[in-house]
Amino acid sequence: MSVPSFGVGTFRLTGQTVIDSVRSALELGYRAVDTAQIYGNEADVGQAIAESGVERAELFVTTKIWTDNYARNTLVPSLRESLTKLRTDYVDLTLIHWPAPGNGVELVEYMTALAEAKALGLTRQIGISNFNIELTRQAIAAVGKDEIATNQIELSPYLQSHTLTAFLKEQRITVTSYMTLAYGKILKDPVLAQIADKHQATVAQVALAWALQLGYAVIPSSTRRENLASNLLARDLRLDADDMTRIALLERNGREVSPEGLAPVWD
Length: 267
What we know:
267 residues; TIM Barrel; 8 strands
């Protein structure tokens, strides 16, 4: 995979909270960190990384361009500002955060500007987030299939998006799953609880292991060090065919995030 399979997310975390979370994650062995311009925490993430003592070359840092910065004359300057906040000369991956159809900037323009950012050495890889199949096709047409490292999308046992994930696999574009725990809603699911008991694991570990076994990258977040440590153990959990079948049956199109004006028409 061109994208690490396991990282720490920072959505909705700011200030000392995100500094402590990222610092704990790095101490525990995480080496991939996911942030975004709109999160308002890039400077905090940069501080945590700088104070961690981990060499920059060992880390994989992802940020996402916000919709206000999609125009060709603003995308690169906004990324340079993100790099300043993150205290780094480059990020490993930069994503278009939302397709934002109708916001006045055409997909070809912002994808081309993103490719230019890569050519300038500001980012090692580029990708997309929250794109449906048709918009992913357009992104491929704009910059080439091999240029798109990942499509970061909401996925959980309650939202499995089989059609989209099958398309991305066919295109050899890595799927990054965010909100894999569905804002914590799955933590009380009786089926997942039974599977967790069977493996002497937690429900969170089961959900993350499910995503990993499907070939997805995951970026769970937590403000608690013990949860960050526990989540990492999902990498060693092997679910059997019966477990995977039971989880597949939990699909309910349980989407948690679909902001009007930013989201596409979902597949």
